[in-house]
Amino acid sequence: MSPENRAPGRRERNKQAKLDRIVAAATELFTQRSVDDVTTQEISDKADIGSGTLFLYVKSKGDLLLLVQNARYAAALERGLAAAKDAANALDAVIALATPIVECNRAPIDNGRTYLREMMFGDPTEPNRATALSVVERTQQAVADLVTQHTGRDAADAAVRAQVISSILFLTMASHASPEFSLPHVVEAIRRQVAVVLPPHGPAD
């Protein structure tokens, strides 16, 4: 049996089980309260591990938030891709794609703000940050694909527009990370900006 096909041993299974409990505990607590209000001891207690064990898996609460939110963000992207399939034009498709991502980033709002900060300015060597950035790249590529599909623009043109739209999405989420802004308000702010970036017609002459 090749190393790739070998079943994980007991030690690997135990490590994965602990990681699963940590993620489940953190997900529950971060859904209820701000990451700043959750202590590492609470996470350890809920995960039924020693307080020191937690830091064998993550380096900080910010790193743990990345781990938790990356999975939620990826799931939101999949929901957005499904919703975008029914859109009649590029603008509607991009907004359908973006809406679940915005909603994910606001649950709760404080954690969404922290997630964006960790993603943009965190340790570049951390795997969880790299995963976050890879999901952003997938989102940007999905936008480029939608632009090409609905407008006929070539890949290079669509990629540039997608990069600008990605910046709009994340900057607007960051600048509207406050309870005073509702989800529809944030989505509409994104929509108005994206409408300027997208071509009004089909393929360029």
Described by strand count, sense and barrel closure, the largest sheet is: none
Using the coordinates above, name the CATH class of the largest domain: Mainly Alpha
Number of strands: 0
The domain count comes to: 2
Mean pLDDT rating: 91
Low-confidence stretches are none
- Apparent shape: elongated
Instruction: Spell out the CATH superfamily of the largest domain.
Output: Tetracycline Repressor, domain 2
- Cα distance spanning the termini: 58 Å
Secondary-structure element pattern, one letter each: HHHHHHHH
Secondary structure category: mainly alpha
Return the CATH architecture of the largest domain.
Orthogonal Bundle
Strand content: under 5%
Task: Report the CATH topology name of the largest domain.
Answer: Tetracycline Repressor, domain 2
Helix content: over 70%
Number of continuous helical runs: 8
- Gyration radius, in Å: 19 Å
Structure description:
- By secondary structure, this protein is an all-alpha fold.
- It folds into 2 domains: 57 residues, Arc Repressor Mutant, subunit A, CATH 1.10.10.60; 146 residues, Orthogonal Bundle (Tetracycline Repressor, domain 2).
- The chain is elongated and about 60 Å long.
- It starts with 9 loop residues before the first helix and ends in an 8-residue tail after the last helix.
- The model has no long low-confidence stretch (mean pLDDT 91).
Task: Name its key features.
single chain, 205 residues, mainly alpha, 8 helices
Structure summary:
By secondary structure, the chain is mainly α. It has 8 helices and no strands. The longest helix is centred in the C-terminal third of the chain and has 25 residues, at 127-151.
